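User: My advisor, Dr. K., asked me to get a structural model of this assembly before our group meeting. I'm new to this, so sorry if the format is off. These are the inputs:
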Amino acid sequence: MNFRVRAVLAGLAIPFVTIAAAVLLASLLVWLSPGYGIDEREADPTISDQALARLTANRRGGPFTVVRKMLHGDLGYSMALDAPVADLIAERGAVTLGSVSGGLAMAWSGAVLGVLLVFWLAPCARLLPDLLAAVLLAVPTALVSVAAFLAGAPVSAAIALALFPRLYLFARNILRSMENQPHVLHARAHGLSPRRVFEHALVRPALPELAALAAVSIRMALGAVIPAEAICDSPGLGQLAWKATLGRDLALLVPLTLLMTGITVFANTLSGISTGGRAG
Amino acid sequence: MRLRSAAALLLILLLIMAVGADWIAPHPYQQQNRDEARQSPGASHWLGSDDLGRDLWSRLLYGTRVSLLLAAAAALLATLIAAAAGVTAAYCGGCTDRLLMSVTDLFLSVPWLFLLLTARALLPLNTPPWESVAITFLLLGLFGWAGAARLVRAAARARLASPFALQAHAAGVSPARLLAFHLLPNLAPVLEAQFLLALPAFLLGEANLGMLGLGVSEPLPSWGNLLVGLTTPGAVAESPWLIAPSVVVLVSLLAMHELCGRSRKSI
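Assistant: The format is fine. Below is the predicted structure of the whole assembly, which you can bring to the meeting.
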């Protein structure tokens, strides 16, 4: 088989294998979780032996039964929140989608502004975004969320503040690595304007790496969702995960983690595709 | 260079204060005095007191000890696991390499905080304080090795293909000797960099877990649970001195980033 075709097939297979392994592990955890499959009707003395046998048989399926149920869309039931997991995820997914997309938009705007300032508009003012990024990088996301909450800012602002330093520093380093490349020096020596050097010699060749960073930023945002939503009291998936942990509700937490893993694998695949397998 | 020296000095000072908390702290960290609740900074309480009248300065000293020393232990554990996985994958190659890297990919694919929460939910939440410390930092160490393992594998492969390793092979050096005397000493700078990278990341991880009520249990202080006081609405406005621990966390992590960043560059 052609080497390139084999590489593409391997690239596509790895995310599927990773997700399959994660599903199996997740199912094992749900199956082993305290209280899984226990039906309160089993304690009912009026229930017939036949019905009792049917109820008991229902929970003897093992982790593969959990996988089968998950594949059929039955994500289980949350004991802590007394609702089907699928309904909870659908309800709160929209809230998280809004806050994550808002946070990503704000963080990227900040990072682009910082990079523009450093490489084009005012290179002498590079200390400003560098200092801001360094300070924000040293603050736990939960503390940033407290500050955002006290200031009355939305959850997306907390996510943006947590993401900005990482995005800005990565983007700056990518562009900085381009700065001393021969084509950039050549463009400068030819007297091209700073704008043209920035656009054509710096940003354009770095686009695959920046696209990979954009994909990876989805994963970063998911990491910031839990503290941001839990602290800012936003009813999204992050807060749901936190409540599930406090309530030791693995039946809810595991499908949630699985969902996040799926999104991360998707983002990583996108990142890998955009760099042609060089990163991600 | 001056900034780096200042950062190093600050961290050394912090470490001395943390280790010597038993002698420096004016009060025991768990001693409650309800009559002195939420006192502003003064002679008896240098950084004020919390809701239960506990001395914040003493709690900060002990909290720094718990967070700094155990984050270092967790970073060491993560680096050791990464070294074992990375070197084994690079040395054995083939199926072992593929299997180990698949496990690494699996760990990298699950968002870190979600993985920590899932593992934390499997364990009892109302654990005794010292058990909660062990659980928190053990989880950080056990789940924080994957990224480093990939880098160690790449570095180990490069070193195994270098002339000195090939010459050692040709001279009939045993695999154990090759690993212990030729490969690992040459991987030391990479492992050191990974350790330095993991340290602030684990401190931030513990602070996040602590603020969510899933880290170190009360009454034992840590950077994470010292920051919990800030989440109470109106607390900062009423008692602004409550932000003192967050300033210490911020300055320490800034110093750590400065020092670790420069060290990584020099490596």
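One thing worth pointing out at the meeting: The mean pLDDT of chain B is 86.

User: Perfect, thanks a lot.
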